[in-house]
Amino acid sequence: MLIFDDVFSWQGWGGKFNLASGRCHLRIFDLSKHERENLAMLKPFVVVVSDLPYDGPSIKRVTVKSCASHIATSVVKEFNLDPQRMVFIEYYPETTYGLNKEHTIAEKYELVEFTWHGQKALHPAWKPLAPPLLETLKEIMTQTQTIQNPDQG
């Protein structure tokens, strides 16, 4: 079940300079409330973050990859999630480029694992997402997109 789907802003650090503050697309799913209720999950909360389109100067761009630990810490705090029961995933949708859009970069899901010190995420490590969770995530993301955008599909 989708419990959050919106733009998420996080505060940076550095006082009035507010370094590394940013925004991303955040989706939080609670898989314990998914159709497969008979499936017990150790980590039922799936947090999916994606970069938002950005057309400003690249020097000011803050990506989800560059701030993964800070975003995970902020999400745990703001949504009162247990980090030991959460899976954190970076999602990159399919993109095309070239003069005639002849090149394609396939969509990508990356699992980010952290070392947690209390409620603070440290030392991110990126890994490919395992097929069982990948298939479930693609299914529920497709279902929520259909609900969010009934004319597309």
Describe this structure in words.
The chain is α+β, with helices and mostly antiparallel strands. It has one domain (2-130). It has helices at residues 68-79, 131-148, and strands at residues 2-10, 22-30, 45-50, 86-92, 95-97, 103-105, 108-117, 120-128. The strands form 2 sheets. Strands 1-2-3-4-7-8 form a 6-stranded mixed β-sheet, with helices on both faces. A two-stranded antiparallel ribbon has the order 5-6. The relative contact order is 0.15.
- Distance between the terminal alpha carbons, to the nearest Å? 20 Å
Poorly predicted tracts of residues: 147-153
Content-based structural category: alpha+beta
Mean pLDDT across all amino acids: 85
Biggest sheet: strand arrangement: 1-2-3-4-7-8
Helix content: 10-25%
| Total separate domains | 1
Q: Biggest sheet: strands, sense, closure?
A: 6 strands, mixed
**Quaternary class:** single chain
Tertiary shape:
globular
The percentage of residues in β strands lies in: 35-45%
User: For the CA atoms, what is the radius of gyration?
Assistant: 16 Å
Task: Report the strand count.
Answer: 8
Helix/strand order: EEEHEEEEEH
Number of helices, where a helix is a run of at least 4 consecutive DSSP H or I residues? 2
Summarize the structure.
It contains two helices and eight strands, in the order E-E-E-H-E-E-E-E-E-H. With 153 residues, the chain is α+β, with helices and mostly antiparallel strands.
Any descriptors?
single chain, 153 residues, alpha+beta, six-stranded mixed beta sheet, two-stranded antiparallel sheet, 2 helices, 20% helix, globular, disordered C terminus
